Each structure stands twice: as structure tokens, then as C-alpha cells.
Known about the structure:
- Belongs to the RBR family. Ariadne subfamily.
- It catalyses: [E2 ubiquitin-conjugating enzyme]-S-ubiquitinyl-L-cysteine + [acceptor protein]-L-lysine = [E2 ubiquitin-conjugating enzyme]-L-cysteine + [acceptor protein]-N(6)-ubiquitinyl-L-lysine.
- Pfam families: IBR (PF01485), zf-C3HC4 (PF00097).
- Among the domains are: about 155-225, no CATH class; about 245-305, no CATH class.
- Helix content is about 35%, strand content about 10%.
- It has helices at about 1-5, 15-25, 45-65, 100-110, 130, 135-150, 215-225, 230-240, 290-295, 310-325, and strands spanning about 70-75, 80, 85-90, 95, 155-160, 170, 195, 200-205, 210, 245, 250-255, 260-265, 270, 280, 280-285.
- The radius of gyration is 26 Å and the shape is elongated.
Amino acid sequence: MHEQLLGFxxxxxxxxxxxxxxxxxxxKKFKQCEVLFVERRQLEYVMKLARxxxxxxxxxxxxxxxxxxxxxxxxxxLEDTDVSKIHAVEGCAHRFCFSCMKEHVKVKLLHGMLPACxxxxxxxxxxxxxxxxxxxxxxxxxxxxRIREAQIPPTQKIYCPYPKCSALMSLSEVIQPMQESCSKYxxxxxxxxxxxxxxxxxxxxxxxxxxxxxxxxxxYKMMHPHxxxxxxxxxxxxxxxxxxxxxxxxxxxxxxxxxxxxTCVCGYEFCYTCGKEWKAKKPTCSCPLWDERNLIRNDIGxxxxxxxxxxxxDEFDDDEDDYYVQDGAHYNQGFR
Length: 336
């Protein structure tokens, strides 16, 4: 029961699950709530405290209706905010203002990560439904996309090769035409024929290109050795700039600044210098952890660049728009 009240796991019995949901919903209405174990002989005292707490909350609610505004201090920005604009994270009840929650989620999403509760040490994942109160429709759309991406293993991800679509699918979702419908295509490589679940365009699951009618995969690759010109350019650019490719999901990663301990969007941790895995937050290699040149950013003249908070906000706003313009451009998703 203690684990259920903390939201760590859900009971199988429907009545008990509904009751736990009601308790969790009530918890979010309190400024502070902590679940503790007590002895049976202390239950009467606990009930007394609960009644006093409820009466206190009701008294505060009456104060609101009489014109006095209730305010709560946000643990992130440290500003006193109207309680109606304070969000309680579902499952852990940690509370933060709408503005800080939006910025926290936006930064995580635009870096390709699923947002969790911003409370230090809390790993409770945020939900789309719970985030609707403070997120814009665009950010909600990105959040849905991130959750969708996270549910598909890296080796199972398939993107539609048609530029105007670029829909994300899993290997199990792509449409495999019936044998009769394949008769209009050459039978040589019809086993690799697939259809996009979104645009219904035909493509080759082996070559990852629009369907090459009357041509085997071998013939197509011989005639189009540079079919993925974008991939070739990306590999050349990565080689020149010493970028690294995640061995787990194959996303390309660039170190802009900071230490050599890298965490990919898929969660894999590795050393940027040699590529070896980090385990339990520790390296498995003896490479240096950082280079001072990556810790302090300088401009062209060698002067230290000072962060501009307003400029960063504008940059994130632009990124949010760019995500929708290039939603299908999965070649760029690995640059973090």
C-alpha cells in the first residue's frame, strides 16, 4: 500500500486502484504531503492531524473567496505565485509554477529527452495529459512525438523515405502488401516491398528508398551508389569535425562544450574521446574527463562569451518552431 500511495506501482484490483487514484488526486491539492508509516496505536492521533489539516485547507479556501489571494513559493524561480498557477506533478506531488514547468519541459523536449519531474532526485515521468495545463499545443505535439520515439527500440525504427512524409514507424508497423497486390511489381525483390502507414507510399525496406520498380536491390545500389547523398555528406562532415556516433542508436553526437561524458538521447552513456561505455556513472576507460577549451566558450577574438538569458529564450522559441518545419528530417535528430 505504501508503494501504491507513492505512485511506484499500480494495484491490480480496480476498486483499490480507483481509491488510490482519488488519494493521489487529493494529495496534489495540498502544499506539502508526505506518506509515512505509523503504528496502529497512533492511528487516532493521525486522524486528528488529518482533520486539522483538512480544516486548515478549507479555511484557506474561504480566504480566497473573500478576495485575499493565496500565493505559493516556487522552488525553482523562488517567486511567490498564485496557487492557481502552481502545478503538482502527478505521482509525486512536487509543486512548481507553470512558467518554470514549461521552461523545464521545453528544454528537455528540444534536446530530444523525455521530461521528468524537475525535483532533484525525482525520476517521475511527466505525462501529456498532466502537462496540458501549462504547455502550448506545439510543445504537446513534440512531447507526443518524443514519447512515440522512446517506445520504439533504435534498431526497430523506420522512417518513410518520402521527404514530404518522413513518418516514424516500427518494423512491426510497416504495411506489407498482400502477395496479390505485389503482382504489378517485379517479383525479384518483392519481399522487401513495404508501404508507409501514413502516406501509403511504397518503399524498399532493405534500401530504405522509394520503391525501385523492376529493379533488384543489388541493381539499384549499383546504379545509385550515392542514393543517400545526405548520409554521405553527414559522414564526411562528422569525420572532419570528429563527431561521434552512438553505438546503441547510431545517432550522431557533437560535443559543443562541457566534459567528455556523453549521454545520448537514447540514454546510452559513453566517453566522447574513445567511445567506450560509461557504467554506473563511471568510465570504463582512462581518458581525461574534460579539456579546458571545451569548458569556457570564447568568441573569435578570444574573449569569454557571457550568457544572454533573453537571447537563450529566443533561441529556444526558434528551435520549437524549427522542430515542426523539420519534423521529418531525421538526419538531424542526433545533434545534441
